[in-house]
């Protein structure tokens, strides 16, 4: 992610380009 933190194997909606990102 770029602007998010890894949480429970996922990333915040602010993250991008990390595969495990929310829509």
What can you tell me about this protein's structure?
The structure is a single chain. By secondary structure, the protein is mostly beta strands. The chain is 0% helix and 17% strand. It has a two-stranded antiparallel ribbon with strand order 1-2. A hairpin with a 2-residue loop joins strand 1 and strand 2. The two termini are 13 Å apart. The mean pLDDT is 55.
Report the C-alpha radius of gyration, rounded: 7 Å
What is the helix/strand order?
A: EE
| Strands side by side in the biggest sheet | 1-2
Which parts are unreliable, with pLDDT below 50 for 5 consecutive residues or more? none
Average pLDDT rating: 55
> Main sheet, how many strands, which sense, barrel?
2 strands, antiparallel
Which class best fits the helix and strand makeup? Answer: mainly beta
Helix content: under 10%
- Tally of alpha and pi helices: 0
Region (Disordered): 1-23
Brief descriptors of the model:
2 strands; mainly beta; single chain; two-stranded antiparallel ribbon
How is this structure best summarized?
The protein is mainly β and 23 residues long. It contains no helices and 2 strands. The model has no long low-confidence stretch (mean pLDDT 55).
What's the structural blueprint in terms of helices and strands?
Layout: E1 6-7, E2 10-11
Antiparallel strand pairs: 1-2
């Amino acid at each position: 992610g770029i602007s998010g933190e890894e949480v429970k194997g996922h990333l915040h909606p602010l993250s991008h380009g990390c595969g495990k990102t929310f829509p």
